[in-house]
Amino acid sequence: MSYFVYILQCADDTLYTGIATDISRRLKEHNSSEKGAKYTKSRRPVALVYSEAFPDRSSASRREYEIKKKMSRAEKLSLIGS
Fold it and tell me: Where's the GIY-YIG domain (predicted)?
């Protein structure tokens, strides 16, 4: 099973980073249901702007941590090509 690290751009122009096994399902959850993240709930709609595939949860989690905690907003924008 592949894992994906993804970055969403929220309606208020903030960025949200997460990990999932099915990006399209997770994007639908962020935009419509109670299963979306608390952060994105008040910032809908959100759009997928970046994703990376990983072979296991461990490597995906490490990358998610790197993006969330070690990258500045400018570095994230550079990563997604904005």
Answer: 1-78
Residue ranges of domains in the chain: 3-80
What CATH class is the domain 3-80?
A: alpha beta
C-alpha 35/C-alpha 50 separation (Å) is: 21
Q: Considering all CA atoms of the chain, what is the largest pairwise distance in Å, rounded to the nearest integer?
A: 33
Residues with Cβ < 8 Å from 23, sequence gap 6 or more? 4, 6, 48, 51
Can you give the pLDDT of all 82 residues of the chain as single tens digits? 899 999 999 999 999 999 999 999 999 999 997 788 899 999 999 999 999 999 999 999 999 999 999 999 999 999 999 7
